Amino acid sequence: MDLINMPGKLISIGDASKLLGVSIDSLRRWDKTHRLPSVRNGSKGHRYYRQIDIDVFLRDIVTLAGQWASAEKGITLEQDVYCQTRDIFQARLEKLQSSLQRVVASKATSLLSAIAGEIGNNSFDHNLGNWPDIAGIYFSYDLGSRVIVLADRGQGILTTLKRVRPVLASDGDALKIAFTETVSGRFPEARGNGLKFVRDVIVGNPFSLDFETGNAHLYLKENDRGIIITPEEKYIRGCLAIIRFENLV
Amino acid sequence: MIIDLKKFGTVLVSRPSGKEAWLAFQPTLNETKENEEVVVDFSDIAVLAPSWADEFLTPLHNRFPGNVRLINTDNASIKATLATLAKQ
């Protein structure tokens, strides 16, 4: 981004790091992926951030969900993004489906609604009666930015899958199994295909998915063959899912 | 026997609602003869996800093996869900 015609307060990358509670390395990575673009200043091209970009980012639904899911203490959410029960989620999912119909084709509408429904209901299925602090899920979407966000403060995938795979040791291993093997933390019920379905839909369509649990992060996009999981410094207490469809024609 | 799925709703995604549909439909299924064809009509279903389908279609297939026929399955989420169930 060019500084010409860029009025307003500029913030150093160090101060932006403190404001957002993330490392400087994360900010550099977000700059490269355009999640939070910087502006360059001076002969050395140091990164700076516009105050307005920081403010918008802090209000961004993705950031809010991440902050809520990673906060040490559970805090009550605004009603417009909070689904305390499955019934509320179902009603809002139907509203999403109806709203999507106006902006994307019917194929994308049904698939995006189905994977959002599968991820949201997964949170309820695996945490019913066992929510550590706040029951229910964060569910929000921005059809202008083409993003759907879901989060929970449940037990997370590692705790859930450890019941059937006691040797599992890390969030990353658990996340990989959840997306690649038919295994359920609700043994002896024969189930556990929900996240495989999500994966198939994402890789078969112009969608992408960021899925985080504990300190593991999975990123999937159209035509991906394998699963790549990277560690995150932020610790998600349950699960955080970000579905994007900005590449949809 | 024709099961008109839209009578259970048009956004069929959760396990509890799939299980409830299966249980609620038992009295009707009990009237079905052993070798009678069971047709599942997906007309007007907007969204189907594997969690719902696994609680309704899987036990239906198990109860009437070889006699279940699915029609009007053109919706993309129905196709994707059926593909997922077929891998099980």
Topology:
The complex is a heterodimer of chains A (249) and B (88).
Chain A: E1 10-12, H1 13-20, H2 24-32, E2 39-41, E3 46-50, H3 51-59, H4 61-70, E4 82-83, H5 86-100, H6 106-127, E5 137-142, E6 147-152, H7 156-162, H8 171-180, H9 194-203, E7 208-221, E8 229-244
Helix pairs in contact in A: 5-6, 6-9, 7-8
Chain B: E1 2-4, E2 11-12, H1 15-24, H2 26-29, E3 38-41, E4 47-48, H3 50-63, E5 68-71, H4 76-86
Parallel strand pairs in B: 1-3, 2-4, 3-5
Helix pairs in contact in B: 1-3, 3-4
Describe this entry's structure for a reader.
The complex is a heterodimer of chains A (249) and B (88). Chain A is an alpha+beta fold. Helix content of chain A is 40%, strand content 22%. Chain A is built from nine helices and eight strands. Chain A has a five-stranded antiparallel sheet, with helices on both faces. A three-stranded antiparallel sheet of chain A has the order 1-3-2. Chain A is globular. The relative contact order of chain A is 0.13. Mean pLDDT of chain A is 88; it is low at 1-6. Chain B has a three-stranded parallel sheet with strand order 1-3-5, with no helix packed on it. A two-stranded parallel sheet of chain B has the order 2-4. Chain B is globular. The A-B interface holds A 86, 90, 93-94, 97, 106-111, 113-115, 117-118, 121-122, 124-125, 182, 190-191, 193-194, 196-197, 200-201, 204 and B 11, 13-17, 46-51, 54, 75-78, 80-81, 83-85, 87-88.
